[in-house]
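Why do we bother with a discrete structure alphabet at all? Because it lets us treat a fold like text: something you can write down, compare, and reason about line by line. To make this less abstract, here is a complete entry for Glyoxylate reductase/hydroxypyruvate reductase. Read it the way you would read a sentence in a foreign language you are learning: slowly, and without expecting to understand everything at once.
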Amino acid sequence: MSSDKKKIYVTRRVPQPGIEFLTSHGYEIKINESDDAIPRELLLQNVPGINALFCLLTDTIDDAVLEAAGPSLEVVATMSVGFEHIDVDACKKRGIRVCNTPNVSTDSVAELTVALLLLTARRMLEGVAAVKEGKWGKWKPMWLCGIELTQRTVGILGLGRIGYGVARRLKPFGVKNIVYHDVCKVSYADDVGATFVDFDTLLRDCDIICICCNLTPQTRHIFNKEAFKAMKKEAIVINTGRGGVINHDDLYDALTNDEIFAAGLDVTEPEPLPADHPLVSHPKCIILPHMGSNTWDSRNQMSETAAKNIHSAFLKEVAVGDVYR
């Protein structure tokens, strides 16, 4: 390829739509052909002289990477909604655009949130295990009894696009009330009949709490020992937002001491959560391996959106995923 073509480095194999888009525009693309996270040394070896870095959540993009890339780097585009792995301030200082892929996983994460809630509330995985382990005996009136969603009060922490999507999907289940807490009231809450409440009220009144917020200094470990003690004993906590919103040690204690009914987590701190962590084997906790956006629909769109962000940055145009302008 000619040296005047823009050079893009892709840190691991990604769905084809993004690669096909970049190829169709004649860019010079180099891909780390692996399904695993790129080793730090390999990343540093391959970024010098590139114009764009197509990365993922597992890649730490800090000042050392930017320094290794040099002044040619114009944009860092991550194939993810989160961008905590990128030193945005360092990019700003160097005039490097930063882009994420917002909105594309809204439906898939909202769907999984509801699925995880149903799995947890109805103790389905315990039922599956009972069948596989030959423990399905004669009928017992209180065996594997769970909790219905009908006539329950649902609380959502973070009524953004995903939180709104969760509320919209839960409403047809016949829930009694939907309340939410966020940094401010949002006008579209009326569309799903959601009422703004303070955090203490959310804890006290809700039968189900779905965590759909970002991780900030204000939300880090906001679900702690005091929060769990304030909740109903039959309450269920579902977290598809960020793992650090929950103090895992305090959650373990709350479940063990029957302070809440159950928990379902698609995000943990750290990720992956070690297999010997006590929450992993806790009978009242279901943990998924951060698979909220694991649909081909979402991943294909994320790949293409990241690619289009790079193309927009090269053209000096506004990108869908601009983290800052």
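What the structure line is telling us, in plain words: The longest strand covers residues 153-157. The first helix runs from residue 16 to 24.
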